């Protein structure tokens, strides 16, 4: 069962993580990529890469890539084919080593309905559910519509009213089919005041099975995890032992090998826990468990698949400190966490505080609607939970990010929220606690950052001048005139009025600024009696300026504006780039407020475009299958009573 070269059947940050793990294990790596990923960092991280013409769900293409790349083992990562028992069987049938659990265990546990039945047979409590999407009365409201295959929050809908059940089932089916190739769904009782807690297990081929403690993953949006931590702030020794025993019972009943995760829903009021599902793969959040146990889970997967025994028992697993992970995503929290796209002009982690970064992108990468919006995972470990949260918040603030909207500011606000610090982190945290979705800067912070932008640009213009480069910008052979630069950031317009003085300083408004140094990517500025070194990135006509609480993107307003055409009056526009998957209306149709007009898909998630008011459809400007950009007009709605 030995192997020397691993095909990584995945992309992005998890592909890079597996490549590092395989290399440290002494194995070469083969990456796969589609055309849209040709510039992705994972492609060049591997020893070689094979382009596939279809996609990451194509079993035949993956096996062919392994053959062409000379791989003798396959690691699926997470998502895509990672929990596909047929893929595991095909890999083994091709004479390759499958780095994951046995296909039989995957089939028994990977299907959520079958896993619930197995859990019940092991005496583990489960939530009331039904595999008949029309049997809502046996489950009761509110309920959750869930995909039977896969995970990651895809194919899930909360339903409070019977009138919305059919739409929720149809939407969950479409989303599950696109993400996992399996559109089966089931209904499950929904617990509003709950926590999502999971237990990591590891098993070898010799019957050894251990758990590595729990992770809490309750802070979510759109049923997708945003923040994960280990240990959970509410799990004590007795609860950990009980949940661990339940997880191991399921593992033993299925003959589990490799890494897996048993997920539970915990009622926050009673502390009772209920089995949800088993993820028969590596989890996105495995990093926090590695940080508190010191066990490299990817390495353990490789060892187990190579036929090695675990070599340790449950008593040998030691927990130390606290670790918290955030998912840094390309999305706009102020716009309902809708996915964001664009080119990453800047993407850099500060040297301090030291954190762990698992990233699938770097500066210059294009973020598109073709893939999940996850850009990176950032993990902080410390002796205490409070210290880990503070360290992580500061590290996020000091990250230099520009070009694409992200949830960075929202994550910082969450980590510093009093309810998060108190450990009050149920699955309704985002709606209940309502952390700030963007950083609100003070007037002094705006003044300093905009001055840094203006004077960095002044220095940059001088250094790139082709003539008179030794002459100060704006110079005349009389008194030096004042210069004005108009900037726009976060919808706010700022005018920086400055003049160069003969001693090398600048009059800025009613203050004096001194540029101690300016480089291609930074400015050392003293202004308002405060001196800071700020990172700066220029991309097209936008200056991305680092300030103590994040990055401001200043758009330079041209001196002479060019007029643009009028917008479509009464037009409903796309809130994000994506693909139109369904047009629900016809010209002349009468609609009510809240009616779905168009369905779009972006980054593997479905989004409904609903009517804001009652009216008549005046025009339809898109067709099913059409790719549209953010702001593109979709339909024209003539509202009733409009003049």
3D architecture notes:
The protein has an eight-stranded antiparallel sheet. Strands 24-25-26-27-28-29-30-31 form an eight-stranded antiparallel barrel. The chain folds into four domains: 95 residues, Rossmann fold (3-Layer(aba) Sandwich); 324 residues, ATP-grasp fold, B domain (D-amino Acid Aminotransferase, Chain A, domain 1, 2-Layer Sandwich), CATH 3.30.470; 114 residues, Glycoprotein, Type 4 Pilin; 69 residues, OB fold (Dihydrolipoamide Acetyltransferase, E2P), CATH 2.40.50. Helix 5 crosses helix 6 and helix 12 packs antiparallel against helix 13. Helices cover 25% and strands 33% of the residues. By secondary structure, the protein is an alpha+beta fold. The relative contact order is 0.08. About 1% of the residues have low confidence.
Notable traits:
643 residues; alpha+beta; Rossmann fold; Glycoprotein, Type 4 Pilin; 8-stranded antiparallel barrel; 16 helices; 39 strands; 33% strand
Largest sheet: spatial strand order: 14-13-10-11-12-15-22-20
Q: Tell me, briefly, the overall form.
A: globular
Main pleated sheet = 8 strands, antiparallel
Structure classification:
alpha+beta
**In the CATH hierarchy, what is the class of the largest domain?**
Alpha Beta
Evaluate the radius of gyration.
Answer: 27 Å
In percent terms, what proportion of residues is strand?
25-35%
Here the CATH topology of the largest domain equals D-amino Acid Aminotransferase, Chain A, domain 1
β-strand number: 39
Would you identify the CATH architecture of the largest domain? 2-Layer Sandwich
Overall pLDDT level: 90
Low-pLDDT runs = 561-567
Number of domains: 4
Distance between the termini: 75 Å
State the helical fraction. Answer: 25-40%
**What is the CATH superfamily label of the largest domain?**
ATP-grasp fold, B domain
* Annotation field: number of helices: 16
